[in-house]
Design a protein that fits this description.
The chain is mostly helical. The chain is built from 13 helices and four strands. It has helices spanning 10-14, 19-37, 42-45, 58-61, 69-90, 92-121, 125-128, 135-148, 164-176, 186-203, 230-254, 268-297, 301-309, and strands at residues 153-154, 159-160, 258-259, 262-263.
Amino acid sequence: MSSRTPVFGGSSFLSGFTRLCKGLSVVLVGGYVVLQIFPPSLSFLALIPARTIPFAWNLITAGYIEQSLIEVAVSTVGLLFIGKLLEPIWGSREFLKFIFVVNFLTSICVFVTAIALYYVTRLESFLYTPYSGFRGVLSGFLVGIKQIIPYQELGVLKIKAKWMPSLFLLVSIAASFFAAESASYLPTLIFGTYMGWIYLRYFQRKPETNLRGDPSDEFAFSNFFPEFLRPVLDPIASIFDLIFCQRSKISNETKGHTLGATPLPISDPIEASRRRERGARALEERLAAEKASSVRSTGDPLHRDVAESV
């Protein structure tokens, strides 16, 4: 009998994932199990706009509650695999902070949007639809991948990472025309992507320089769209620069990174480029390690020797 260990089974499958991602996956699975055992808990844990005022905690809990087996499977797999790339680069603390902030801000935006749509349409379905799921954070993760490895080709179709958030939203919006329940997930996807970009663009702290955000042109809001739309979008995006960049400038000045009106040689665009290079190297090293692990599992002595040399 062969003693080979399957690459996608048992501890070999879980060994490449971080402890934090495994713990968060347990939270997602546990939330789904709670709903199956005690279905009325959905009213307390999901975001139901008509009940958010007394149950304000659902602005936090809603993001970790999946309502179907498919949703919890997709969210768990997405968290494990994307987290395996982002967490080592950002650090566990920053990775967890990103999840919390994007989830909370997305819930607030969904709440405000649902209330506004109710007053416009007078449809009570906007007030009593239970909004929940980790998909908003997953959308934000795609923005993180766009930032770190924008030119890395991903998937079978070899799509560059910088287009992943835009294509994901485009496909989701197109699919919403054929799905009756689209109102329960589309706002979460849109706001998750947008909140993820705002946090990474203006607020994420860089441990190397202690500065905030990523002001590089490659990460501008208009770069989420085709080039012919950018002249129209740039003036709109400049509003957010005026709102958020001034705060970042004041914060950086108080930390001694500027001298009067003259910035010191430490620059965010340079650091952002270095971070993307680190992300690309981390991805290449991880793919090489996984390939070597896969070759070893075949049991072929020749392939094992090649893998060990790698």
